[in-house]
Predict the structure of Daunorubicin resistance protein DrrA family ABC transporter ATP-binding protein.
Amino acid sequence: MTPTAVRAEGLVKTFGDHRALDSVDLEIPTGQVLGLLGPNGAGKTTTVRILTTLLKPDAGRAFVAGHDVLAEPQAVRRSIGLSGQYAAVDENLTGYENLYMVARLYGMSRADSAARACELIDRFRLREAADRPSKTYSGGMRRRLDLAGALVAAPAVVVLDEPTTGLDPRGRLDTWSVIGELVADGTTVLLTTQYLEEADQLANTIAVIDRGRVIASGTADQLKTQVGGERLELVVQDPADLPVVTRVLGDVGSGAPEPHEQLRKVVVAVDTGPKALVEALRRLDVEGVAVHDVALHRPTLDDVFLGLTGRRTEEQEDRP
């Protein structure tokens, strides 16, 4: 294993007049998770397809587990496991048969394939459903089976392309748990996602991609620091007090207050955190304003993305 498990340098890919990737650079240290964050159409899946040898870049180069994706595609394929947005399982086979088949396709003996399938069935908590056709599985179970299939050959690098798309909250938490186990075992993970909370929870580092470019990268805390400050939120009992609250928060905040009349709430960015909160409450008490609720929040990754791009990750674009 190399200290850097995945490295991409200046990746460019165009489809007709559409430039899907525009000089993308990425690096993932061995045994860590990189979260590739961005909206639909940003270039996440195109990046994944290049790193997994499914697509050739027009320019740039990339290395996975020390192998050049263009010069050594077979070596790259032997080093990776891939789980896409949709579970790639044969619905007519049982969970066990799916994993056994994948192991045989990797060239394992019958005995080793059976042993590996049983091991993964237990690891991914599928024992009770192992002999049922996978078409009877829930979405979360199908996702776990798909992830198990990606790990049959114990790859050094696992690529997860929006692995929790379409899952309910329980299925998403189950998938997060599986990813945590992978990292604990020393596996390197490239995770693409639209879900900010997912990147915040799982990734050691995050790269924000938009319109084919990496526009920011770092840890979640580093990216949040770029936004600056915290956000003070005050909810009042009487909507008639909102002008007073807006004026007071304008004095203690570091930006323009944002009143939300229907929610009876005013939000403002603050640099001094708790001090601004205390001062705001003192002034509102003098003004006789009854405060219903108060909160002080650190910036979220959604704030980061909004600040960097002027839109939120769930906003989609019409792309070729």
